[in-house]
């Protein structure tokens, strides 16, 4: 039996009683029998109670709960303190305002209470970071150095993981290097989506999902970066990306992903994003024209006589007159570096000694 059904029954009884009283009242002005008014208007009230009660009780409560669930705990605490401060100021002003002549002393104190409460909540929410920073102090016996405080803040940092970055697999290698500082948090709805992909009838999606499961297993075994799976959820939202953005705003933490669309949505809503693809582009080697380079030519280029090779980080190298040296390790000189939407591309020319690839 749902809570909404219980409230419907209670509303039906209350509205039926109210209808019966109204029927008895209106029967005084008519020649019709009193019982007929009581029964008819009472039944109308019962039907109105069944229909209207959820709109007056459970549904507004569910909406308020959903709104509160999207607000961070720090904002809620700041709003509560702001409300208390506003009511205290209003209470101090109530006595002098009550000395005003009628009708002002009955109206102005109420207006002042509402205005002070609203201003208190707004001011405390807008300056919540500054206010909470005033109450941050070191416990006795602890070091008060800024370096240690910064280190503790980094250890308590939370990073949300997206499904795409788990399936990608590079997160395991990145975490092992120690560049990620904090706790990797995987919400239950992300794990459910990963399990849904792993159980997909499509063989390619199924393989990607299973690879994601293996990556999670590796992350749990590694002790460099702690991994935590949480049952935390966001009510009223179905899409996983929307849940991640809302949860990141509540926890005030970044999202680790390689999904371009999620990256854009999070940026528009002011959520920090750690993009693995951007990290990969940032750590690629920087070469300038004139620098020597040793590369393995593995295929022909698009233009006549060109050969194509790749660096260890995946950067494409196009070599002039390199077609005749396919499957050879050659020394080349960089002539031009081109940054495209797909990544960095290097152009080079043949120079120096050649070695046959064994």
Largest beta-sheet details: 5 strands, parallel
Structural class: alpha/beta
Helical residues, percent: 55-70%
The multimeric state of the shown protein is: single chain
Secondary-structure element order, N to C: HHHHHHHEHHEHHEHEHEHEEEEE
CATH-defined topology of the largest domain: Rossmann fold
- Parts with pLDDT < 50 across at least 5 consecutive residues: 137-154, 353-358
Highest-level CATH class of the largest domain: Alpha Beta
Instruction: Give the averaged pLDDT, no decimals.
Output: 82
N-to-C terminal Cα separation, in Å?
A: 75 Å
Q: How would you describe the shape? A: elongated
- Tell me the radius of gyration: 34 Å
Secondary structure tally, helices:
14
CATH superfamily of the largest domain: 5'-nuclease
Percent strand equals 15-25%
Tell me the number of structural domains.
4
Structure description:
By secondary structure, the chain is of the alpha/beta class. It has 4 domains: 3-64, no CATH class; 70-130; 152-281, 5'-nuclease (Rossmann fold), CATH 3.40.50.1010; 292-356, OB fold (Dihydrolipoamide Acetyltransferase, E2P), CATH 2.40.50. The chain is built from 14 helices and 10 strands. It has helices at residues 3-26, 34-56, 58-69, 73-98, 104-126, 128-134, 146-155, 163-168, 170-177, 188-198, 203-221, 240-251, 260-268, 276-282, and strands spanning 158-161, 183-187, 227-230, 255-257, 273-275, 292-300, 307-310, 316-320, 328-340, 343-356. Strands 3-2-1-4-5 form a 5-stranded parallel β-sheet. The chain has a 5-stranded mixed β-barrel with strand order 6-7-8-10-9. Strand 6 and strand 7 form a beta hairpin. Helix 1 (3-26) runs antiparallel to helix 2 (34-56) and helix 10 packs across helix 11. The longest helix has 26 residues, at 73-98. It is elongated, with a radius of gyration of 34 Å. The N and C termini lie far apart (75 Å).
